[in-house]
Write a structure and sequence with these properties.
By secondary structure, the chain is α/β, with parallel strands linked by helices. It has one domain: 3-Layer(aba) Sandwich (Rossmann fold). The protein contains seven helices and eight strands, in the order H-E-E-E-H-E-H-H-E-H-E-E-H-E-H. The chain has an eight-stranded mixed sheet with strand order 1-2-4-3-5-6-7-8, with helices on both faces. Helix 1 packs across helix 2, helix 3 crosses helix 4 and helix 4 crosses helix 5. It is globular.
Length: 259
């Protein structure tokens, strides 16, 4: 009988091969200000005429390709492949100042440091414009598709921050998964999810960490309790901001149960 370690190795190899064979197809999308939004689309298995759709949002200093690689911090390739085999059409986009939109004079880490030092305008613009871009992408997706049976938005860290801000304005989003959203002071207005939680009506999975340096237990509890959603779930991991790979199982289980 095949031992467990060998079986796991073969499964990981199969996932890596599948990811390499599905790097995504570029999609042309124009932001409201006329700049291009770099987007990749992964088609689902099964060829359904009207599949559910998923928009995945990356973290600070990262890029859309995080969702194609099965490695830290998101182990995103495994989640993407699960969604694809489950029948989702998947959209990956670069946030402002990230990935293909990176500008050497305004790197995202430096922008965050400036915000913490009191110059918050560039950081606020980066987040608010990314939320606007995500909504523009969703509008394009929903204009060219029939009404999908499910519209999932998922994000990790800064991507979770953007996902919350987007979903609070988008009732067309039906399912929301946010992994370790950082706490953002309400003084940052539209860049702070806590100011928008009254708009979270979707089925929502919030994943937090009890040693997260970017959000305390009190912050996470406040965020969760402020959402009026009647179908919300929170799971806390014994980790720092980088969640253990086990978080993927929690997401898969929730997606299977959240109807």
């Amino acid at each position: 009988m095949m031992n467990r370690s060998l079986l796991l190795g073969l499964m990981l190899l199969a996932t890596s091969v599948a990811q390499a064979a599905n790097p995504g197809v570029p999609l042309e999308v124009q932001a409201e200000d006329g700049t291009p939004i770099p987007v990749l689309v992964l088609e689902p298995e099964g060829g359904a005429a009207n599949p559910p759709v998923a928009l995945l949002l990356h973290g600070l200093t990262r890029n859309k390709e995080d969702w194609l690689a099965d490695k830290e911090p998101t182990f995103g390739g495994a989640l993407t492949e699960h969604l694809r085999t489950a029948g989702y059409r998947i959209y990956l986009m670069d946030a402002r100042r990230h990935g293909a939109r990176l500008t050497p004079d305004e790197k995202p880490g430096a922008i965050l440091k400036r915000s913490r030092a009191g110059d918050s305008a560039p950081y606020q613009a980066m987040i608010v414009d990314t939320v606007r871009d995500a909504r523009t992408l969703l509008a394009k997706v929903l204009a060219t598709n029939k009404k999908p049976p499910r519209v999932l938005v998922a994000g990790y860290s800064m991507g979770a921050q953007v996902a919350l801000l987007m979903a609070s304005r988008e009732p067309r989003v039906t399912h929301l998964v946010t992994m370790v959203p950082p706490y953002v002071d309400p003084v940052l207005g539209d860049a702070a999810p806590v100011t928008r939680m009254s708009g979270i009506q979707q089925r929502w999975l919030l994943l937090t960490a009890n040693q997260d340096p970017f959000s305390t237990e009190e912050n996470n509890k406040q965020l969760f309790e402020a959402a009026p959603s009647k179908h919300k779930t929170r799971k806390t991991f014994d980790s720092g901001h980088a969640l253990p790979r086990d978080y993927l199982e929690e997401v898969r289980r929730w997606l299977g149960e959240a109807r």
